[in-house]
Amino acid sequence: MPSFYSNPTLFEEIVMKQILHIDSSLFSDKGVSSTLAGDYVAGLMERDPELRVVHRDLGRDPVPHLDAIRLGAISTPEAGRTPEQARIAEEAEAMIREIQEADLLVVGVPMYNFGIPSVLKSWFDHVARAGVTFRYTAEGPEGLLEGKRAVIVTSRGGLHRGQPTDTQTGYLTTILGFVGITDVEFVYAEGLNLGEEARASALDSAKKDIERLLAA
User: Domain Flavodoxin-like fold, which positions (predicted)?
Assistant: First the structure.
C-alpha cells in the first residue's frame, strides 16, 4: 500500500499541489536511486511544506506482474466482477488515481541488466490503460495525463548515458509521453561500481543536478 508523508492536517483540506513518488530499487529506501529521489522530494517539501506526497516503494510493496488473471479482472465490467476480480481492479484503479491526481511524478530507477526494474515495468503496465490514461484516435494514440511533469532519478553501476546500453532513457521517455507526460527531466548517477572515486563523483554530480532542479 502507498504511504503518505506531509503535514497530516492537509489531508482533509483542498490539496493544491501533489507529488507521486515511486521508488523501484530492490533495496527499498537503502538504494542509491531511492535516496537521491527522496532527497529531491524532501527539498521540494522544504521549499513548500504544503505539498502532499504519495509514496510507493515497489521494492518493499511490489505491484504484481500483469498476467491473464489480472488483465481479465481489469477488463471485466464492474457489475460482473467476482470479489477477487474487484480487489484486483481496485488495486489498479488506485494506481491510476494517484498519477491522475499528481502534478509531479518523481521516480527512482536503478539499472538492472541494462533495463528498468521489472516491478516498475509492472507499475507502468497497470497505469497505461486505453480510454483512461491514453486513447486511440484517427491520428494515433493520445496521452490523457497532460500538464504534468516527471523527474527520473537513475542509478547505474557503469557508464551508459548516450550509449546503446542505455535502454532506460528511451523507454521512460516513450512510455511517459505515451500517457501524455512530455515534460521529463533525468538525473543520472553513473559509474557507481567503478571505484570509490568514480562513485563519489557520480553522487556529487547527481546531487548538483538535484540542487539545480530545486533552484529552478
Answer: 17-212
